[in-house]
Give the backbone structure.
Amino acid sequence: MRRFLDWLEEDAPFWDVTTEALIPRGLRVKAVVIAKSSGIIACTEDVFSVLEPLGVKVKEYLASGTQLSPGTIVAEMEGEARTLLVVERTLLNLLMYLSGVATITRAFVEKARKVNPRVRVAATRKTLPGLRALTKRAVAIGGGDTHRLSLSDAILIKDNHIALVGSVAEAVKLAKRKASFAHKVEVEVTSVEDAVEAVRAGADVVMLDNMGVEEVRLCIEKLRELGLRDRVIVEASGGITLDNVEDYAATGVDVISTSAITLRPARVDLSMEVVRN
C-alpha cells in the first residue's frame, strides 16, 4: 500500500489539475477495467487490494491466471470520481505490465514443454526496481519458475566472483564450506570444461551462460559421458527467445532462464471506463 501511494504521488505530486477543474468533489461513479487485447491477467488480488483504503470499492474482479480476450471485463469498481481518475493510470500501468509478464511466460513455457515436458522456464533478477515481488508473482502465474527472489535465496557464483577467487573449483569449495544447509550452490560457466570442473567440485547447479544450442548439447553429452549428469541441475541462460526456446529445451536442460519475460513483455492492453451511477 505504501509503495502504491508513492507511485500515485509521483503521478500527482500536488493534485490532478484537470480533474479538480472539471469534476466536483463527492461525485460517486462506477468504473470498469476492460481488456483491449488478449492475454493472461496477473496480480489482480495484489493490485486491487490497495484501492479499498483509498475509498474505492472493488465489487468484482477476475482471478489471476484468467485468460483475457478483447472486451473481457477485468474488474468492476465504485468510488469517488476524483479518486478513480487519479489512480487510473498507475493501476492500469501495473496490471498491463504484470499481465504482460504472465502472458509471455506462458508462451515460453508452452513452447519449451512441447519438446521437453520436464523443463522449467525461470525468471532472472533482471526486474524493474520496486516491482520485484509482483513481477516474480506474475512469472509464477504464467507457469514459470521464479528462480532467486533475491541475493539471499541461494549462492550463484558468477564470472566476477570466479575472477576474484581464482578458479571455478576454488569458488565452489569456498561456497560449500560456508553455505547454509538450506542454500544450493550454482555456478555460472561459459565453457564445457568449466561446467565439468564445477560439477566435480560439488556444485548443485551449473548455469551455461550465453552458450549456443550446440555447445549446450555438447556440455550435457560430456557430463553424461563422465557419469556426472545425474549429479547436477543444468540451466541454460542468455540469448534465449521465443524463437529459439524450443531448440534449447530439446538439448535436455533442466532449466531455461531468460530476462525476456521480465524486461521485454508485450503489454496486455487494458482501459478503465467511468460512468455515472
Q: What stands out?
A: The longest helix spans residues 81-115.
